[in-house]
Amino acid sequence: MLETAKIIDGKKIAEDIKSELKEEIEKFTKANSSRKPCLAVILVGDDPASHYYVKNKEKACELVGIDSKKTVLAAETSKQDLIKEIQSLNEDENVDGILLQLPLPDALRAETQEIVDTIAIDKDVDGLTTLNLGRVFTNDSKAIYPCTPKGCMELLKRYHVETLGKRALVIGRSTLVGKPISILLNNANATVTMAHSRTQNLEAECAMADIVIAAAGKARFIQGEWLKDGAVVVDVGINAITHIGSEGEERRKLVGDVDFDSAKERAGLITPVPGGVGPMTVAMLLSNTFELYQRHI
Ligand code: NAD
């Protein structure tokens, strides 16, 4: 029988990356420029989760020596006004990266890609413009990897997970996570299967996979029994659920797309939620900001 899985400590790896970045930024800035790297974040509307994520990103910037500049716009902001704001940041010589916090409010959501595409390619810190995604697709050295997929790959790298020739299953095909991570795994020589809501027999796909990346946004839906013994499981999902506390009170908590308790009995390596991919996304945002800054200096 296999031992219980080793936990991939995304929080610790993200802390390590931030310390490394802090040093690199200080050294590079001292030698090359009078200004620090700068990340501009645009937040539209009052979604509490988005405000929380942006606050985290600002704190992380401060910690490693990156200036951050936040623009908060009302939920009713028109597409034209939002694009005007992006264009003014495109023209600001002191801004290295522009992040449009997603999801946008309902009224703008259908036009997300069109709006994201107005971010200048050399400031596309999240890597989500069509042009940059094309660079990811062609494995161009100028590509900026979207933060969450890049964070997943970095976790695999730092835990010495072999991808060459391995079967990788990506569950989810969004532009933000599933599709780009499939490409990155493919570039890393894995044999990649992309599953989605219309996939037949996901259990059979899981049973064959050496590496499973779960990004479906469905709480605890992937069961441990579906996994191959010793599989590496990276759980991208962040789902808020309500559960009953020890004194019968209702409590909210965050869980992944994988049923962690059953999966850890079967997997070789597994990320927890929280403390897995989430902190890596922020660390990769800092790393992308620094990369764009170096290109601007
Ligand atoms: P999304 O809703 O855009 O995409 C979900 C994908 O899952 C779709 O492609 C859909 O086809 C697929 N899917 C849905 N049901 C399925 C099923 N039964 N079987 C197989 N596939 C199915 O979501 P997203 O933006 O890609 O995010 C996915 C999850 O990752 C969410 O929980 C989100 O909160 C989380 N997320 C986490 C981070 C992070 O930093 N950890 C970053 C981004 C997103």
* Integer-rounded radius of gyration: 20 Å
Hetero compounds = nicotinamide-adenine-dinucleotide
What is the H level of CATH, i.e. the homologous superfamily of the largest domain?
Answer: NAD(P)-binding Rossmann-like Domain
Strand tally: 11
What is the mean predicted local confidence, pLDDT?
Answer: 97
Q: What is the N-to-C order of secondary-structure elements (H for helix, E for strand)? A: EHEHEHEHHHHEHEHEEEEHEH
Helix content: 40-55%
Low-confidence stretches: none
Gap from first CA to last CA: 55 Å
**Rough outline:** globular
Widest beta sheet: strand line-up: 1-11-8-7-5-6
Largest beta-sheet details: 6 strands, parallel
SS summary, helix count: 11
- Domains, number: 2
CATH topology type of the largest domain: Rossmann fold
- Strand percentage lies at 15-25%
CATH architecture of the largest domain: 3-Layer(aba) Sandwich
Content-based structural category: alpha/beta
What's the CATH class label of the largest domain? Alpha Beta
Explain this structure to me?
By secondary structure, this protein is an alpha/beta fold. It folds into 2 domains: 87 residues, Rossmann fold; 133 residues, Rossmann fold, CATH 3.40.50. Helix content is 41%, strand content 18%. The chain has 11 helices and 11 strands. The strands form 3 sheets. It has a 6-stranded parallel sheet with strand order 1-11-8-7-5-6, with helices on both faces. A 3-stranded parallel sheet has the order 3-2-4, with helices on both faces. A hairpin with a 5-residue loop joins strand 9 and strand 10. Helix 2 packs across helix 11 and helix 7 packs across helix 8. The protein is globular. It starts with 5 loop residues before the first strand and ends with a helix. The model has no long low-confidence stretch (mean pLDDT 97). The site of nicotinamide-adenine-dinucleotide has 24 residues, from helix 11.
